[in-house]
Amino acid sequence: MAIRDRLLAVFVAVLWGLNFIAIHATLGQFPPMFAGALRFLLIAIPTVFLVPWPRVKLRYLLGYGLGFGTGQFAFLFVAMHLGMPTGLASLVLQASAPFTVLLGAVLLRERVSGRQLAGILLAVAGMTAIAWQQSAHAALVPVVLTLLAALSWAIGNLSMRRAEPDNPLHLTLWMSVVPPLPMLALSSIFEGPGAAWHSLTTLGTKTGLIGVAGLAYVVIFGTVIGSGIWTTLMRRNPAGVVAPFSLLVPVVGLTASFFILGEVPTVLTLVAAAVVIGGVLLGSLRRKPAVTPEELLPV
User: What transmembrane ranges does the database entry give (predicted)?
Assistant: First the structure.
């Protein structure tokens, strides 16, 4: 892997790690479900007019959109809205990798090696430690919701695998067409149209401008630029060489949340984070890598 590509991979990991800070800023202005709908709507509109159809079966596009898009971001945004620490969210969401391996074994009959199983058990041990610590602070529900977000991401991964797109980036962009309507419906039911309207009519306030900046970052840097560079790296390098760089995302997320938001992780959290990252690395990679670029696309 060329030095240029290594630097680009680190750059993408930084973009994706800071994505969680941007989500935090976005949720300061917009209700979580409505924020998710806006996030995808801003990508979906230009995609329909500018990006070629990915030439996949519609059911796989819908499965990818509902899993990776609607499910993941509905659970994640609500979890962060309810108090899930930003840095911790970037870590717990990494559970999508072992979830993908397990679902692949159950639904697609993919073989799970001893190495993968050991990695999954390590990751589960780390997640259990985090959940135990959060439950002591009455914050278990956000952790569970973030784990459900990771599970939804894994379900989306399986749809992406079955789709077998010629251009994964095109499918990722077209996937954005699926979530807006379901998320708008969920927002209307659980948040009420008044909350969404208020968030739009107060965009001129300081909080509103920060929220818009956060949303713009998620769409432009986190999705379009980050996904574009990552997909390019995956095309010209072995997946097993590029994929480990994604494990820098929670490192960046935890570090940025410490310096920007003042979130101070406990010693147990840091130890559990190391265990989770090690487990994800061990459990999601094989000698002949099964990790694909679409499985490691950003939030």
Answer: 7-27, 33-53, 60-82, 88-108, 117-133, 139-159, 171-190, 210-230, 242-261, 267-285
Three-class DSSP category at 191: coil
- Number of Cβ within 10 Å of residue 58's Cβ equals 8
Each residue's pLDDT tens digit, 41-93: 999 999 999 999 998 999 999 999 999 999 999 999 999 999 999 999 998 89
Q: How far apart are alpha carbons 21 and 238 in whole angstroms? A: 30
**Alpha carbons 122 and 260: distance in angstroms, whole number:** 30
Paired tokens of 116: 């993968």
Whole-model pTM: value is 0.88
The answer to whether 55 and 42 have CB atoms below 8 angstroms apart is no
Q: What is the DSSP string of 60-102?
A: HHHHHIIIIIIIHHHHHHHHHHTT--HHHHHHHGGGHHHHHHH
Whole-angstrom Cα Rg for the chain: 18
71: phi > 0 → left, psi -120 to 50 → alpha, else beta; which?
alpha
State which H helix or E strand residue 24 sits in: helix 3-27
pLDDT tens digits, one per residue of 91-137: 889 888 888 888 888 887 878 788 878 888 888 888 888 877 777 66
